[in-house]
Automatic annotation (TrEMBL):
<feature type="compositionally biased region" description="Low complexity">
    <location>
        <begin position="351"/>
        <end position="361"/>
    </location>
</feature>
<feature type="region of interest" description="Disordered">
    <location>
        <begin position="351"/>
        <end position="373"/>
    </location>
</feature>
<feature type="compositionally biased region" description="Pro residues">
    <location>
        <begin position="362"/>
        <end position="371"/>
    </location>
</feature>
<dbReference type="GO" id="GO:0043240">
    <property type="term" value="C:Fanconi anaemia nuclear complex"/>
</dbReference>
<dbReference type="GO" id="GO:0005654">
    <property type="term" value="C:nucleoplasm"/>
</dbReference>
<dbReference type="InterPro" id="IPR029251">
    <property type="entry name" value="Faap100"/>
</dbReference>
<dbReference type="GO" id="GO:0036297">
    <property type="term" value="P:interstrand cross-link repair"/>
</dbReference>
<dbReference type="Pfam" id="PF15146">
    <property type="entry name" value="FANCAA"/>
</dbReference>
<protein>
    <recommendedName>
        <fullName>Fanconi anemia core complex-associated protein 100</fullName>
    </recommendedName>
</protein>
Length: 862
């Protein structure tokens, strides 16, 4: 099938509530079409919606008279008659976005109250209606005349005719059903003899009214109708019959004569359109020489007047089929334009001329079956002619309404109104094909690029929505964790271990990211681990030697874990304690456009290697870990503090010896190996607190039970990488270990009885003794033990806390000792407060003395 390209101009787009009974017609510069229970008036001049008429029931048919009255058929009501809404004179210049006039049509505008009317036709001063009652089709004729001021139009019934109904698809239904599943309605058309005086007006103002040449008019409808120039009503029924009724022939008085509609032909399928086709004459006019009827499934009936040999002219009925279904059709000159909802096609009717046959032949040959031409417009469900006259060049313009409610103007090229379609010469056909293929390739590339962009945006929106859900979840869980101790759904915990890297022992930290939420951590998320020294030491450049490690998360589904390992330092360069902040970071750069050259398509790129701004990231804090000296000790059951202290120190190099002689080496002020007794620190802990916190069966308050000390030591060493395998085999409440710097330390736990603490009697407590010849080692282990003991009060928030009444003498001595140490600390810091640079050695000795007094007489932790 051939195809041509026509120009389509979209005017506006409306929402169609029901596309089954959409009608469209042109009334001057106003375009009227129905949508559900509304009639919309669109101004073709201003290209805007000018008015909306609202009815109570759905509109099925409408017509427009020369006196600017709108006739509307509504379901279950009848025919309304109302005038066009009167708009106020627009200002100069006119306002384009002026709101349309909204008018609700009341029931008092009903011209003919009849709920059984299926369709109607307006022909000058005649109103023809067709209705269905049981097994009969009723055709009523009314005279339309001017009425009173309250009701400007009145009706007078002229005649009533009946036709027996034939139900082929639905025996008990009101109407037949077409191929689209919609109800089929009867089609009305009025035919006038051309050149007669019965209808002097212009037929373009009355849709459904057509002219037909007198010869064919006489052959089809009889001599009586032709003599009186009577218009004939053609009725196309859903069962396929074409019935006709002359309107101005008097009713016969004899009982044997027939009156009423007669059957002209049967298409054997619901009728979709009835009209007449014209051919161009030598004088430049058009002569309507054919009667055309089209069925809904594509059968076409063409009735012409041909030479019948010696009998003169006779009517000839020709039938052929076209591609259906026929949703709507319009006839212009010799061309039929019809829509199948998927395509708009043009069909040229090949009506034979009068000289096409000779008198010696019994009948003319059959004309060739016409071939429809595709116009490449889809979705058309209603159409009409855009103007009564052809445009310059002979092109046809149609107003069409699509299934989606788009009102558009279709301009057909001149080739569709003539005979043949212009074709390209063979020399240019190859180049045209190449151009079309190149255009298809360009369109495909643009469509692929747009598809990739849409997919990337959808992925970015989905990922951003997931990020917002995770942020909301973490924020709510953080608030709940402050109220009660609950673990976050996404958390991170760490474990230390020793590993040999490049023949050096290094302390490694393994962080485990657990996703216990219902969301998946995808590309863009990173686990950030920030490590810094708690002592606040600085390098030579006065910078804090903190480190940040970033590990990208490729995909972490709910219930999965991610393990990452990072070095904390070697045994010679490790400075403890360390604080480790674990956070979850999302980079907004991962939501960037794929066309951006800076966008990291390779998911293996570390985000830490890219310049990341704080404003372009979303950071969620997870956990804070602390790595102290107790996590880095090497424990050995055969090691003793005395044996290690008697070992000769390692030989020093010349530089270190020179600095040591000048007092420039930072280290132990007293010098390790020169003391006869080690440094020590004591921590006293209530057995009742430890038992209530850990609920250990061996931790008992009973006197003389060594298992309380052993259980306390096992609890302190639990999780230490250097004590693995030693905790289960530990039988004595003492252990010796070696710190990363090489110094040895010993930790001993024993039970002691204090008689001057409580007024209730002697109190059994655990005394944790820490000893080492290195002051830094003692301080580090003392901090590690105190940090672990601080967790115990949080573990017994819901338990019964032990109640104890302390003695006044014990409290008085503790207060006096604390005041004395506070005064000594103020005296040691006086030079610094006055801005005087004190001697570092003297200040160090004073602070060391205060520190020893604090550790030798500690407060009891209850």
């Amino acid at each position: 099938m051939e195809a041509i390209r026509c120009s389509v101009e979209s005017w506006a787009e409306f929402g169609l509530s029901n596309s089954a009974n959409v009608k469209i017609l042109l009334a001057g510069t106003a375009v009227l079409f129905c949508s559900g229970s509304d009639i919309l008036l669109f101004s073709s001049k201003d290209k805007r919606l000018s008015a909306v008429l609202q009815f109570d029931t759905p509109v099925t048919h409408l017509a427009f008279s020369a006196r600017r009255y709108i006739y509307v058929l509504c379901e279950k009501d009848g025919i309304y008659c109302t005038s066009l809404p009167q708009q106020s004179r627009p200002p100069s210049p006119p306002v384009v976005d002026q709101d349309p006039v909204l008018q609700r049509v009341a029931e008092d505008s009903i011209l003919l109250k009849d709920p059984t009317i299926d369709s109607f036709l307006l022909a000058e001063d005649l109103l023809i209606t067709v209705s269905r009652e049981e097994a009969t089709w009723t055709l009523d004729l009314y005279r339309v005349s001017d009425g009173s001021s309250s009701k400007p139009v009145s009706l007078r019934k002229l005649a009533e005719h009946r036709v027996s109904a034939i139900n082929t698809a639905q025996p008990h239904g009101k109407t037949e059903v077409n191929v689209d599943g919609k109800d089929s309605w009867p089609v009305l058309s009025c035919i006038y003899p051309s050149g007669g005086a019965s209808f002097p007006g212009d037929l373009s103002g009355y849709p459904g009214c057509f002219l037909l040449e007198p010869v064919l008019f006489t052959l089809l409808f009889g001599v009586d109708a032709a003599l009186v120039n009577s218009p004939v009503v053609l009725l196309g029924l859903p069962d396929g019959r074409l019935c006709y009724l002359p309107l101005r022939i008097p009713t016969p008085s004899a009982p044997g004569q027939r009156a009423g509609p007669r059957v002209l032909h049967s298409l054997e399928q619901p009728v979709a359109f009835i009209g007449t086709s014209s051919v161009a004459t030598e004088t430049g006019g058009c002569l309507p020489r054919s009667l055309v009827a089209i069925g809904q499934t594509g059968r076409v009936l063409l009735v012409t007047a041909n030479e019948g040999g010696g009998q003169g002219k006779v009517e000839r009925f020709s039938e052929f089929s076209i591609r259906g279904p026929v949703v709507c059709a319009y006839l212009s000159s010799s061309h039929v334009y019809y829509s199948t909802a998927t395509d708009l096609l043009s069909l040229k009717l090949n009506a034979p001329s009068a000289s096409s046959s000779s008198s010696d032949q019994p009948g003319p040959p059959d004309p060739p079956t016409p071939t429809p031409i595709s116009l490449n417009v889809c979705g058309v469900i209603a159409m009409t002619l855009a103007s009564s006259d052809l445009t310059e060049g002979g092109a046809v313009e149609l107003l069409a309404l699509s299934r989606r409610g788009r009102l558009q103007k279709i301009r057909l090229p001149q080739g569709t109104t003539g005979g043949s379609v212009a074709r390209l010469p063979s020399s240019l056909a190859g180049q045209r094909v190449k151009d079309l293929l190149a255009g298809i390739g360009n369109v495909w590339e643009r469509a692929s690029a747009l598809k990739n962009t849409v997919q990337h945006r959808n992925k970015s929106l989905r990922l951003l929505n997931q990020v917002l859900n995770i942020c909301s979840l973490m924020s709510n869980q953080k608030a709940e964790k402050q109220a009660c101790d609950h673990q976050q759904p996404i958390n991170c915990h760490g474990v230390t271990s020793w590993s040999c890297v490049l023949q050096n022992d290094s302390l490694m930290l393994t962080c485990t990211l657990e996703n216990n939420s219902a969301f998946t951590l995808e590309h863009g998320w990173s686990l950030c681990v920030h490590i810094y020294h708690m002592s606040g030491s600085f390098t030579a450049e006065r910078e804090n030697p903190s480190r940040t490690y970033t590990f990208p998360v490729q995909k972490l589904s709910p219930g999965q874990k991610l393990d990452v390992t990072l070095p904390l330092g070697s045994s010679h360069s490790l400075s403890l304690p360390l604080t480790v902040h674990c956070s979850l970071m999302f980079s907004m750069c991962s939501l960037g456009s794929p066309e951006d050259p800076n966008f990291p398509e390779n998911t293996g790129i570390q985000p830490s290697s890219l310049p990341i701004r704080q404003s372009n990231c979303i950071c969620l804090h997870l956990n804070t870990l602390t790595v102290d000296l107790l996590d880095a000790l090497h424990f050995d059951a055969s090691m003793s503090l005395s044996s290690v202290s008697k070992q000769p120190p390692a030989p020093l190099d010349a530089v270190h010896t020179l600095l040591d002689s000048r007092g420039s080496v930072r280290g132990d002020p007293t010098g390790q190996g020169q003391r006869s007794s080690p440094y020590s620190a004591v921590v006293k802990l209530s057995v009742e607190l430890l038992r209530a916190s850990l609920k250990a069966p061996g931790v008992d308050a009973g006197a003389g039970e060594p298992w309380a000390s052993v259980s306390a030591l096992r609890w302190l060493l639990n999780g230490c990488p250097g004590a693995r395998g030693l905790v289960e085999a530990l039988q004595m409440p003492a252990v010796t270990g070696r710190c990363p710097a090489g110094h040895t330390a010993r930790m001993t736990i024993k039970e002691v009885t204090l008689s001057d603490v409580s007024i209730e009697g002697p109190l059994t407590v655990l005394e944790i003794l820490i000893e080492s010849f290195s002051m830094a080692t003692v301080c580090g282990l003392h901090y590690a033990v105190l940090r672990r003991i601080q967790v115990l009060p949080r573990l017994i928030q819901t338990c019964h806390k032990p109640h104890m009444q302390l003695g006044e003498d014990h409290m008085r001595r503790a207060m006096q000792r604390a005041e004395a140490l506070y005064k000594a600390l103020q005296v040691a810091l006086v030079p610094t407060a006055l801005g005087v640079s004190p001697s570092s050695i003297r200040t160090s000795h004073r602070l060391l003395s205060i520190y020893q007094q604090l550790r030798e007489n500690p407060l009891l932790i209850l």
